[in-house]
């Protein structure tokens, strides 16, 4: 609500990247920015490859909530449409399997297997990070497929900063991570 109220006061729209909306677990429920569409214009981005865990399916969509017509009156809606130079129709193979896939997905979603697996994997990653003296996991993730950890450089020899750590880890162990400080 704070984001929507601040955006309303500033007279700006909210663009929400919600491709991971169904990959949440923990005590903080996901709330779509769409519920604040009566407060401020909202554009929401969704993706089939993330939402339904289907790598390679590059289908995505934009959903707008524009109760006062701001997106239309300012020309933003037309600018968005002008950028849609890729066909608005789904790829042929998606048309063939989407109906069948959605039925299977709904059964899968009811069991919440994927979410339980992500939570379990996240728990393992945080717990195992406790075994590495120079790494701490300050807060267990409540969604997504990654964690943020804190690196204690004073416990590492020959490491200048987080970027140096990332580069050397990639070269020596073929593990790719992103730095958080720079």
Can you walk me through this structure?
This protein is of the alpha+beta class. The protein is built from seven helices and five strands, in the order H-E-E-H-E-H-H-H-H-E-E-H. It has helices at 2-10, 48-51, 70-73, 76-83, 92-111, 113-129, 162-173, and strands at residues 14-17, 42-47, 60-65, 135-136, 150-151. The strands form two sheets. Strands 1-2-3 form a three-stranded mixed sheet. The chain has a two-stranded antiparallel ribbon with strand order 4-5.
Tally of helical segments: 7
Category from helices, strands and their pairing: alpha+beta
Report the uncertain regions: none
Shape: globular
Question: Could you estimate the helical fraction of the residues in percent?
Answer: 40-55%
Mean pLDDT: 80
- Secondary structure: number of strands: 5
Radius of gyration: 21 Å
Strand content: 5-15%
Largest sheet: 3 strands, mixed
Give, in order, the helices and strands: HEEHEHHHHEEH
User: Main sheet: which strands, in order across?
Assistant: 1-2-3
Distance between the termini: 30 Å
SSE topology sketch:
Blueprint: H1 2-10, E1 14-17, E2 42-47, H2 48-51, E3 60-65, H3 70-73, H4 76-83, H5 92-111, H6 113-129, E4 135-136, E5 150-151, H7 162-173
Parallel strand pairs: 1-2
Antiparallel strand pairs: 2-3, 4-5
How would you summarize this macromolecular structure in one to three sentences?
The chain has 182 residues and is of the alpha+beta class. It contains seven helices and five strands, in the order αββαβααααββα.
């Amino acid at each position: 609500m704070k984001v929507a109220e601040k955006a309303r006061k500033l007279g700006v729209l909210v663009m929400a990247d919600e491709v991971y909306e169904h990959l949440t677990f923990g005590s903080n429920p996901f709330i779509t920015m769409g519920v604040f569409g009566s407060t401020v214009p909202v554009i929401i981005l969704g993706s089939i490859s993330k939402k339904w865990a289907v790598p390679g399916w590059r289908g995505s969509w934009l959903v707008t909530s524009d109760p006062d017509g701001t997106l239309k009156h300012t020309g933003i809606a037309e600018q968005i449409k002008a950028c849609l130079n890729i066909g608005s129709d789904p790829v042929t193979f998606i048309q063939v399997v989407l109906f069948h896939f959605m039925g299977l997905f709904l059964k899968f979603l009811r069991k919440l297997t994927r979410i339980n697996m992500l939570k379990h994997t996240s728990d393992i990653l945080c717990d195992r990070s406790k075994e590495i003296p120079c790494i701490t996991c300050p807060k267990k993730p409540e969604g997504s497929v990654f964690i943020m950890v804190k690196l204690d450089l004073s416990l590492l020899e020959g490491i200048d900063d987080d970027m140096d750590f990332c580069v050397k880890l990639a070269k020596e162990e073929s593990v790719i991570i992103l730095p958080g400080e720079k």
